[in-house]
């Protein structure tokens, strides 16, 4: 798939190294792209996305869950929801894939430096926020307090829970977990509240005037959390939202991903809440 003068529209070749099931419909895919693609991916900022092509299926936008530079692989946490993701979930290690990117605007890491960071993840929203979390922890001294609040429907759908518990136990971050309901005793030595993600925020004491909040989750969560964060004193320009829209070109040419006058693929997918005020369809 490699081209002599590489166009952003053409995927580089890549192959599936490993797949790890995280829940009944969501797996972590470790993918090795060819060397030229890795060079482009070295500029990756958490929150940006890649376009993954699955032969015989098509292309889908995915925000990497991590990009461990030393390993030369990209980690994609993908839920099986339709045609392309079904095909991806059937692949075995060694399978050929295509990858282009990174695209879009990620989290404003330089602005966040020196400040507390509060990550709020609902369901699959943990995927893009995991790459931000890994970055913050790798450069721990560059940031203030790091707190992750993560809500899932039930314990079996809580992704990366052992890994997150281990990271919290190592002391670099505070972790608050919640599930909408818990049908059985929780296993695995982690504790978690029962309730919705916004409930975790209620009564949470933090330095709201300086904090950057990064939010990713199902659409109904955004409006509620933005209001709660603003009420708590976090300014709208420091509330960062990772949005999803259906995409095609990924590079600002087709307008498939329009949000008002903005394009999710180039102006986002990470937006400041202040930039979305006056665009009712954004949230
Ligand atoms: C910037 C960005 C980052 C993303 N990151 C991730 C990620 O880390 N992990 C992950 O599992 N998924 C992620 N997605 C969503 C992923 O792209 C879609 O699930 C995928 O395109 C579905 O393809 P499909 O052919 O399997 O499903 P389809 O057969 O096309 O659709 C199945 C269902 O999913 C819905 N759907 C499809 N695309 C989207 C979309 N872009 N947004 C909302 N709903 C959609 C359809 O309406 C339909 O209900 C991301 C999307 C964007 C735009
Ligand atoms: S996906 Fe084509 S303009 Fe955004």
From TrEMBL:
GO terms for biological process: pyrimidine nucleotide biosynthetic process. Its cofactor is [2Fe-2S] cluster. The keyword Metal-binding applies. This is FAD/NAD(P)-binding protein. GO terms for molecular function: 2 iron, 2 sulfur cluster binding; flavin adenine dinucleotide binding; metal ion binding; oxidoreductase activity. CDD domains: sulfite_reductase_like. Residues 9-109 form the FAD-binding FR-type domain. It comes from the Bacteria. The keyword RNA-binding does not apply. Gene3D superfamilies: Nucleotide-binding domain of ferredoxin-NADP reductase (FNR) module (3.40.50.80), Translation factors (2.40.30.10). Coiled coil: none annotated. Keywords: 2Fe-2S, Iron, Iron-sulfur, Metal-binding. Binds 1 [2Fe-2S] cluster per subunit. It comes from Geomonas paludis. InterPro entries: Cbr1-like_FAD-bd_dom, Cyt_c3_hydrogenase_gsu, Dihydroorotate_DH_Fe-S-bd, FAD-bd_FR_type, FNR_nucleotide-bd, OxRdtase_FAD/NAD-bd, PyrK_electron_transfer, Riboflavin_synthase-like_b-brl. PROSITE patterns: FAD_FR (PS51384). [2Fe-2S] cluster binds at residues 249, 254, 257, 265.
């Amino acid at each position: 798939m490699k081209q002599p003068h590489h166009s952003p529209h053409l995927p580089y070749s890549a192959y599936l190294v490993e797949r790890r099931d995280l829940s009944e419909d969501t797996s972590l895919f470790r993918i090795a792209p060819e060397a030229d693609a890795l060079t482009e991916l070295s500029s990756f900022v958490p929150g940006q996305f890649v376009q993954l092509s699955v032969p015989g299926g098509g292309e889908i936008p995915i925000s990497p869950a991590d990009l461990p530079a030393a390993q030369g692989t990209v980690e994609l946490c993908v839920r099986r929801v339709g045609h392309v993701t079904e095909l991806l979930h059937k692949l075995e290690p060694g399978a050929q894939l295509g990858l282009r990117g990174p695209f879009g605007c990620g989290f404003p890491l330089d602005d966040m430096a020196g400040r507390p960071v509060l990550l709020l993840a609902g369901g699959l929203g943990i995927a893009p926020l995991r790459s931000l979390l890994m970055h913050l922890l790798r450069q721990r001294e560059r940031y203030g307090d790091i707190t992750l609040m993560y809500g899932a429907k039930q314990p079996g759908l809580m992704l990366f829970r052992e890994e997150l518990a281990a990271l919290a136990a190592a002391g670099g971050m505070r972790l608050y977990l919640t599930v909408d309901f818990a049908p059985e005793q929780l296993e695995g030595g982690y504790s978690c509240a029962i309730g919705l993600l916004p409930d975790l925020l209620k009564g949470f004491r933090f330095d709201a005037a300086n904090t950057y909040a990064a939010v990713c989750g199902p659409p109904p969560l955004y409006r509620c959390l933005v209001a709660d964060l603003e009420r708590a004193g976090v300014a709208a320009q420091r509330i960062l939202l990772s949005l999803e829209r259906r995409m095609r070109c990924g590079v600002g040419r087709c307008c498939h991903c329009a949000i008002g006058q903005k394009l999710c693929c180039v102006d986002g997918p990470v937006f400041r809440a202040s930039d979305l005020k006056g665009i009712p369809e954004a949230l």
